[in-house]
Amino acid sequence: MSADRERTFVMVKPDGVQRGLVGEIVGRLEARGLRLDGAKLLTIDRDLAEDHYAEHVDKPFFEDLVSFITSGPALAMVWSGQDATRQVRQMMGDTDPAVAAPGTIRGDFALDLGRNVIHGSDHEDPGANEREIDLFFDPDELVDYDRIDEPWVYE
Ligand code: IDP
Ligand code: MG
Fold it and tell me: Could you tell me which of 1, 17, 151 has the C-alpha nearest to residue 80?
């Protein structure tokens, strides 16, 4: 399916790591049929956090957001597949877990806007996915391969 494979950046935030939700979140993305291209556990430093959330620099919650996202280890990942960015966003649910639909990751595992367990690239911001991948990964940290079930996931 490589022709329309899209890559997207996904991160289990420090609250998700501390709450033991890594396996659950990875499992959902994997079971959907998306392909894991790369992953690393890291504690984000202030410079990387400010770059990653640059679009929010003028928002009142920016300081809290940066201090939260740098507060402990996070699992940064690249996932790929057809329409991956939008599909991951749908699986994540609304930014505010209080209104995120049940069945979504935020709707099932979070309650508070400032502790919403997962990040995914914005599908309404073209290029955000590749920009975020470049921010967190060197090209040689990502792997291109065929998942054996792809003929059963894609027509
Ligand atoms: P997203 O994570 O769904 O893409 P964004 O609007 O890009 O949502 O915001 C980035 C992150 O900033 C959110 O996931 C959330 O953790 C935090 N955030 C967004 N809006 C607020 C707010 O109004 N108060 C506190 N934190 C917020
Ligand atoms: Mg966003």
Answer: 1
